[in-house]
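Appendix B, Record 12. Input sequence as logged:
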Amino acid sequence: MSTSYPHYKLSIPPRRPDWVARPRLIERLDQGLNHKLTLISAPAGFGKTTLIASWLHNLSERQQLAPRVAWLSLEEDDNDPARFLTHFIAALQKIDRAAGQTARQFLETPHIPQLNHLMTLLINDLAALPQQGVLVLDDYHLINAAEMQTAIAFFLDHLPPNFHLVIVTREEPPLPLPRLRVRCEVVEIRLQDLRFTAEETALFFRTMGLALTAETAQALEDRTEGWIAGLQMAALSLRGRTASEAGGTGPLEIDAFGCGRRDIIDYLAAEVLQQQPAEVGTFLRQTAILDRFNASLCDAVTGRNDSQAMLCHLEKANLFLIPLDDRREWYRYHHLFADFLRAELAESEQSALHRQASRWYEAHGLASEAIKHALSARDYQAAVRLIRSNADETLRNGGFTTILNWVNALPEEVVRAHSDLSVHKGWILYLRGEIAAGEAYAALAMEHQRPDDPPIQRGMLLGFRAYLTINRGEPAQAVQLAQEALALLGDTESFYRTTALSHLGQAQRLTGDRQAAMQTLRQAIALGQQLGNHLMTLEALGYLTLLLYQQGQLREATRSCEQTVRRYMDARGHPLPMAGLVYVPLGMLYYEADDLERSYHHLTAGIALCQQMGTVYPTLVGQRTLAKLYYVRGEIEAAWETLAAARELAAKSGNQRRIRMVNAVTAELQLRQGHTAAAALTLASLPATASERSEQENLIFTRLLLAQGHTAAAHSLLQQLEKFARQQGRVGSLVTIYLLQSLAHHAVNDLADALDCLEQAICLAAPEGYRRVFIDEGPVMAEMLRQRQFVAPAFVAGLLEALPQPVAGDQLTTVAPVQSAVAQPLIEPLSKTQLAILRLVADGLSNREIAAKLAITEGTTKWHLNQIYGKLNVCSRTQAIAQARQLKLL
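Logged structural output:
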């Protein structure tokens, strides 16, 4: 079943045959095209929609170069940002098919970015339109979510001059209207403008086939104050009387409904309904539960087989039936008339009718509407069945928010009673960063799981638990859970099968079983492509890329990423949001190949896309490489700010493995600057044994040992790492290991062994193009490379060209840091954040108090303090304050 929606939401209502020409208002609407906004605001029943639809239909006939127009009928369900933007973009694509392609992809990710960002993407698309565009938002008063109002206000503020927005609403919208008025950017049509004049009233009655006396027409116009709905209801009431009655005012009892519009509609609607044959009245009441309907749907709800004829009769009789498309397939009742009709139905009858509507929508492949009516009928058994039967397709299409909204609409006790619903909700919440809530629903799913649950449901839960276990830093347990999940999921097309495969590959990688991980991830990519599970396909490819990099297959990894990226572009050549999962590893690969320009482009774009999607791990992978790139470009402040942002993000995730991943790169840059004590503090929380540390952590720890002069310990650790890397065929890792062995031998003047190790590194690196691993070692590497240029002449020549030349006294540090814009008596200046922290330390604030004051985490505060200690060459708060005062930083 599809989660699509009928075309009526995007269809301009057709011309009404009884429409009264209103040239004074048409002229105002034409004038509005020269402004940003036309606002049509009045209570229900004043002909707002009819006016704007008729104007649009006539616009092309009256102008040689008519603007491209689009229409969006809003509903209460559109307060959900994902649903609103899906429809909003679909409307814009009626104007330009390319509009919103990039923004729409963000709606297919678990975490929807800030709406202003998505609006910016849409505005940029609209600015490229070849001619003027017009979008009408009808029934805007139904949008009451504050974030939606903010997004529309942003959209209005930044509209390009070639685009015009029309808002049709019953109420004053919470938009910046005063500012728009001051700037003459809005044309407004209000209640007093929409009221029928005496002439328009008389013309209207004539179109309704009534020849009223001037006195009767005037009396009706006075009592209704030009309210069109009241005039139409009065005309219908009069038309049901005898010709002799129609000429006077007595039987209509005009004075009886003079108290207010609600009184008028109730009085007249009751009178009009009483005049209808019983079968017409029954049809009206039964179909009033439907927001929109066609003949087939009406047949299903009422049990009739002649609904098409009945709809034709109602339209000819002007019984407040409003066509929604030019095909006259879909209709709705006037809102006021529908409200009256619904009040005539008992609750039990409404529930039965909603059930029938749900069955019709299900049979016609409209999942959202089927679920909505099942929920309205309180038929939770049907709603659960429908959600289950549509979950996989919806998730594959990126409908994470849709699934979450469906589950949220169910009573909590229903969600708790079904483990698969708890898994859906918990998994999506976890992906959105709501860690505690996600964990809570996982626990609920385990608590309410039954032995007789279908294998797919049990497999879903095990797959979700595997994901949670990975993030808790327990990959070995995750391997077992993912394998059990896959056994239960079998060869099904479940969304969670690809997910479980990807999680298994991640867990195998973290346990060190890289060959198995690569095989699993390749399976996940193939299955994801086969089933259309794009998000998990790209996630698996991202993890596979990291493994290929370590295995020494740099060129294959780069080629695979480049081919994939080209498949995830919009019509204008911009990357789609999910491409961020590939952009980040591709940026890392370009960095290693020393293509710094392309590396910077892909890293910054990929990080932005991943942040907007809310995917933490790829963001951190990108930030750690970007920090290194900033450093080698001499942008030291940018490097530390990038790592600070990464540290903050890792801390918020609560994942110690991710925090340590940031710490490793932090220590690497500290060592390059010669801040050995600071690097030791950064790495102080590492596990004691090499087997408990990641490869990256072991390599950084080796560098620390070398910087501290513990050459023997460094040699011993490198031998362990070499043995393990050889066993697993990790050529990429061996390049770095051999280089560190070369530097270790060089440190004790064992030049022969140093050159032998360097030669091994060159032999492995040259065929695949590993360059940065040599260049980042700095000038000390240049002299040794010259002595081994014969191993790979062209490759080494390129390295020598990129390396800075050695100078007297060069140690293992490499790039000289640039001076900050703020003059400080330090080689490596303190950042603004670090200066702020230092001042608060001097004021006696604790780490917790500093974190609260600066709106950062306590862990990030400690991280910054460590940076401060390194730059000041001290080891404590007291020493830092004393040194800062001596340097006149305080």
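Residues 514-531 form the longest helix (18 residues).
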